[in-house]
Amino acid sequence: MYVIIVYDVNVARVNKIKSFLRKHLNWVQNSVFEGEVTKAEFERIKDGILRIIDEDEDSVIIYRFPLDFVPKREILGIEKNPIDDII
Amino acid sequence: MYVIIVYDVNVARVNKIKSFLRKHLNWVQNSVFEGEVTKAEFERIKDGILRIIDEDEDSVIIYRFPLDFVPKREILGIEKNPIDDII
């Protein structure tokens, strides 16, 4: 499946969540990651996020799409971080 | 069509872009808006964003989906802003 993850976490946990997500997904913008993952990877990513965030303070949105559905993305302004193929 | 918009703009322009997007879409998280729009509305939104942002400094990602395709959303942690039906 294809996922887009957007996080809004306390600055104390930003680096932690960013480096965790970089291991699994492509960095698209400051707080946005996306990529194709298996169901097992997806569960690992969710578990990892839950271990890092404070569920009473932070918020992480996960959008999930069917396999091979890659959403159309358009960027206005600068492309903060070009997609690199970490996967 | 359904759109998700994530912005990463200089703090000087955050309130401006937020209040602009609130007129057209639903606020999902700190810097994330989404909603169903017509093609004409979509063009107005893009024009509005381009008038507000500094294209050399800010970055706005627009994901676009076919009509009636509403992506599955899951939130880990707190729901920073419950969807309200502005539209």
Automatic annotation (TrEMBL), chains A, B:
GO molecular function: hydrolase activity; metal ion binding; RNA endonuclease activity
Required cofactor(s): Mg(2+)
A Pfam family: CRISPR_Cas2
Record bears the keyword Coiled coil: no
Signal peptide: none
Enzymatic class: hydrolase
Keyword line: Antiviral defense, Endonuclease, Hydrolase, Magnesium, Metal-binding, Nuclease
Domain of life: Archaea
Residues at which Mg(2+) binds: D8
InterPro entries: CRISPR_associated_Cas2, Virulence_VapD/CRISPR_Cas2
Keyword Hydrolase (UniProt): yes
EC number: 3.1.-.-
One of the GO BP terms on file: defense response to virus
PANTHER family in the cross-refs: CRISPR-ASSOCIATED ENDORIBONUCLEASE CAS2
Record's function text: CRISPR (clustered regularly interspaced short palindromic repeat), is an adaptive immune system that provides protection against mobile genetic elements (viruses, transposable elements and conjugative plasmids). CRISPR clusters contain sequences complementary to antecedent mobile elements and target invading nucleic acids. CRISPR clusters are transcribed and processed into CRISPR RNA (crRNA). Functions as a ssRNA-specific endoribonuclease. Involved in the integration of spacer DNA into the CRISPR cassette.
Family: Belongs to the CRISPR-associated endoribonuclease Cas2 protein family.
Subunit details: Homodimer, forms a heterotetramer with a Cas1 homodimer.
Annotated protein name in UniProt: CRISPR-associated endoribonuclease Cas2
Name of the coding gene: cas2
